[in-house]
Specification:
- The chain is an alpha+beta fold.
- Helix content is 22%, strand content 34%.
- The protein has one domain: Roll (2,3-Dihydroxybiphenyl 1,2-Dioxygenase, domain 1).
- The protein is built from three helices and nine strands; from the N terminus they run E-H-E-H-E-E-E-H-E-E-E-E.
- The strands form two sheets. Strands 5, 6, 7, 8 and 9 form a five-stranded mixed sheet that branches.
- It is globular and about 50 Å long.
- It starts with a strand and ends with a strand.
- This is Glyoxalase/bleomycin resistance/extradiol dioxygenase family protein.
């Protein structure tokens, strides 16, 4: 249903460094960067995605009001574990270590971290072990 989603962040270089570490754990990378010169203004942004198609954007501007919850698909439980470890090493705040969340369904394996702006970022695998 969604083509892409974007968050305004308070410290673009810090957030870009954070997501540059996390997204490869899920098989994604920074596949597009736009500069203020590109946009004809002050906006700078980075788009992350698969196969060259950015689906998740971060960019300059006033911080997105309130906190968001964004869950990224992980292809395996090991990828969820790697996401969590990379996030913690990159300075994330723990918001729920990797594990089964049976209250969602028996195979829901997820991990939750807070990014530099306090957004609840999750990696989740729905596959059986």
């Amino acid at each position: 249903m969604l083509d892409h989603i974007g968050l305004s962040v308070t410290d673009y270089p810090k957030s870009k460094a954070f997501y540059d570490v996390l997204m490869p754990m899920l098989g994604a990378d920074c596949c597009m960067v736009v500069t203020a010169a590109d946009t004809g203004g002050t906006y700078e942004g980075a788009g992350y995605g698969l196969n060259g198609k950015p689906s998740f954007w971060i960019g300059t501007g006033r911080r997105t009001q309130g906190s968001m919850h964004i869950a990224f698909v992980a292809e395996s439980r090991a990828a969820v574990d790697a996401f969590y470890a990379a996030a913690m090493a990159a300075g994330a705040t723990d918001n729920g270590p990797p594990g089964i969340r049976a209250h969602y369904h028996p195979n829901y394996y997820g991990a939750f971290v807070l990014d530099p702006d306090g957004h609840n970022i999750e990696a989740v695998c729905h596959k059986p072990a």
